[in-house]
Amino acid sequence: MKDYIRSRIYESAEYVLENKATIRETARKMMISKSTVHKDLRERLALLDGQLFNEVKEVLEENLEQRHIRGGASTKAKYFS
């Protein structure tokens, strides 16, 4: 794995942990695609650092569980503001 990919993975992981960020927010911040962030954090990070992978995985799973609530709040704000 090339060094720039490795550093991108660690930067993305740190951002997710510090901000409890979603894949989409992380992609926007790092200026890369959502697909790249997803691959970095779900596949490549596991190969590099298992403990960090587990921490990031917990945050991403929490975001996944809350997704339907965020979507509902967003729609409500859009139509009733």
Explain briefly what this protein structure is.
The protein has 81 residues and is mostly helical. The chain has 4 helices and no strands.
Description:
- By secondary structure, the protein is mainly alpha-helical.
- It has helices spanning 3-19, 23-30, 34-48, 50-80.
- α1 (3-19) packs across α3 (34-48) and α2 (23-30) crosses α3.
- The longest helix is centred in the C-terminal third of the chain and has 31 residues, at 50-80.
**Helix vs. strand class:** mainly alpha
- Through-space gap between termini: 48 Å
Radius of gyration: 14 Å
Helical residues, percent:
over 70%
Q: What is the N-to-C succession of helices and strands?
A: HHHH
Enumerate how many helices there are, as a single number.
4
Strand elements, count: 0
